[in-house]
């Protein structure tokens, strides 16, 4: 029985490694034409996942000290911190990975993509489930923070540097701080990449709406008093939101 258990565990770990390497090949343009051995040896996201899967297995068996030691060594080598108790699904791809933090009670589904600087963290000093649940096929952009026991629904996109404090419905794009849903059940892009360049800007939209209302009030006041008021300043987006994505998407 022990031999069968050992063989079964080895087969499961080998399958997880193959899935992690395959995810890097599929979602990282830099991995095209690179051998699986090179990806396993030099991709920090893949290495951090391998270390986590070992630490998570030992943590589940109740082994003291060793899981946290593995996690600490992995953080020092890869810049990615994953708590040994965090639940990680198959096919997670961590691109570059520097500064990624995944908390103790976080749950990450299958085929999720995290870019550098992402935090799946907690808020306050609450006990129990205090970290996010990220469902399958989610993409979280660079520097985004998902905080607290929130759920990011299947197929959702979180824009770079967004701060998510509330649940995100499935197939929704969220941007801003705090995060706002700007596209619900929208056109799904091919693959895990999100078009970060052309995402709507809810703050600029709100300012533009306010500027329009002020201009309407000024025109009404001008008709009433007969005095012309200087024109209001135009609110312009900080980037061109039309045309081809200069990032190549």
Characterization of this structure:
- The protein is α/β, with parallel strands linked by helices.
- The chain folds into 2 domains: 2-198, Hexapeptide repeat proteins (UDP N-Acetylglucosamine Acyltransferase, domain 1, 3 Solenoid); 201-249, no CATH class.
- 35% of the residues lie in helices and 15% in strands.
- It is built from 5 helices and 15 strands.
- The protein has a 6-stranded mixed sheet with strand order 3-6-9-12-14-15. Strands 1-4-7-10-13 form a 5-stranded parallel sheet.
- A hairpin with a 4-residue loop joins strand 14 and strand 15.
- Helix 1 (2-27) runs antiparallel to helix 3.
- It is elongated, with a radius of gyration of 23 Å.
- 29% of the residues are buried.
Short descriptors:
249 residues; alpha/beta; UDP N-Acetylglucosamine Acyltransferase, domain 1; 2 domains; 6-stranded mixed sheet; 5-stranded parallel sheet; 35% helix
Short description:
The chain has 249 residues and is an alpha/beta fold. The protein has helices spanning 2-27, 36-42, 44-60, 66-78, 202-225; strands at 81-82, 87-88, 93-94, 101-102, 107-108, 113-114, 119-121, 133-134, 139-140, 145-147, 151-152, 157-158, 163-164, 172-175, 180-184. The longest helix is centred in the first third of the chain and has 26 residues, at 2-27.
């Amino acid at each position: 029985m022990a031999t069968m258990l050992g063989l079964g565990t080895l087969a499961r770990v080998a399958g997880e490694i193959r899935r992690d390497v395959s995810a890097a090949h599929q979602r990282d343009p830099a991995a095209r034409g690179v051998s699986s051995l090179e990806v396993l040896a030099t991709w920090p996201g893949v290495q951090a996942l391998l270390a986590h899967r070992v630490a998570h297995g030992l943590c589940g068996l109740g082994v003291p000290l060793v899981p946290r030691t593995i996690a600490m060594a992995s953080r020092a080598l890869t810049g990615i911190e994953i708590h040994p108790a965090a639940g990680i699904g198959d096919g997670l791809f961590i691109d570059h990975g520097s500064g990624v933090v995944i908390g103790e009670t976080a749950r990450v589904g299958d085929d999720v993509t995290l870019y550098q600087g992402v935090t799946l963290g907690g808020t306050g000093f609450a006990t129990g489930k205090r970290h996010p649940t990220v469902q399958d096929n989610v993409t979280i952009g660079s520097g985004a923070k998902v905080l607290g026991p929130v759920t990011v629904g299947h197929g959702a996109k979180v824009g770079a540097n967004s701060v998510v404090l509330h649940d995100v419905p499935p197939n929704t794009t969220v941007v801003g701080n705090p995060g706002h849903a700007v596209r619900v059940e929208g056109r799904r892009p091919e693959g895990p990449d999100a078009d970060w360049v052309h995402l709507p800007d809810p703050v600029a939209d709100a300012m533009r709406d306010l500027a329009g209302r002020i201009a309407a009030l000024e025109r009404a006041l001008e008709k009433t008093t007969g005095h012309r008021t200087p024109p209001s300043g135009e609110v312009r987006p900080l980037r061109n939101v039309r045309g081809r994505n200069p990032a190549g998407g």
